[in-house]
């Protein structure tokens, strides 16, 4: 069991997450009907976190806080579309929470997810439920519960959070009339969970999606 996440592990988590959503981007695009049916949510989220992954491959960091700050900065610079901007806000709050941390445990992870959600909600003038905001909020709430039980197990915290996020994602169809009419779940929420799953897969040593030539590099 991994008790903490160091800078190198976090860097690899971001790289793996970018590979994961790159592999799923077309499926996510196909879900994209809200707020505008322009079919680019998967592409925008992939390009946004792809910018962060590129940054993680360029250099190494001596603390997880510095790695998270660099991730958030790169995401902000590379943010595409509404979904990319919200993703950058989620990571900005996340990074702020662990700014001074050398490593991150399960409790730190839960707090970081919560601050990320707070940053995203604060920046959106009229938050709509049944979106990535809903999914991220319920994901963070479950992470907090899990961290109280297993504060030294970030994998368990992330796994529990993703499971709750999947339930929340399924409910987005009923929460949003546009999604209900189309019979799909929210594209942004799906993309967010793909990213979190990629991060968890990295911690567990799961190989990156095949055919992802850009995501081959490992951070040593």
Which tags fit this structure?
disordered C terminus; 220 residues; 9 helices
Helical region count? Answer: 9
Indicate the percent of residues in helices: over 70%
Number of separate strands: 0
Rounded Rg:
16 Å
What's the assembly state of these chains? single chain
Give me the strand/helix succession: HHHHHHHHH
Unreliable sequence segments: 212-220
Mean pLDDT across every amino acid position? 92
Task: Categorize the overall geometry.
Answer: globular
A few lines on this structure:
71% of the residues lie in helices and 0% in strands. With 220 residues, it is mainly alpha-helical.
What does this structure look like?
The protein is mostly helical and 220 residues long. It has 9 helices and no strands. It has helices spanning 7-31, 41-58, 64-78, 81-97, 106-123, 132-149, 154-175, 177-182, 187-204. The model is unreliable at 212-220 (pLDDT under 50).
Helix/strand layout:
Blueprint (H helix, E strand, L loop, with lengths): L6 H25 L9 H18 L5 H15 L2 H17 L8 H18 L8 H18 L4 H22 L1 H6 L4 H18 L16
Helix pairs in contact: 1-2, 1-3, 1-9, 2-3, 2-4, 2-9, 3-4, 4-5, 5-6, 5-7, 6-7, 6-9, 7-9
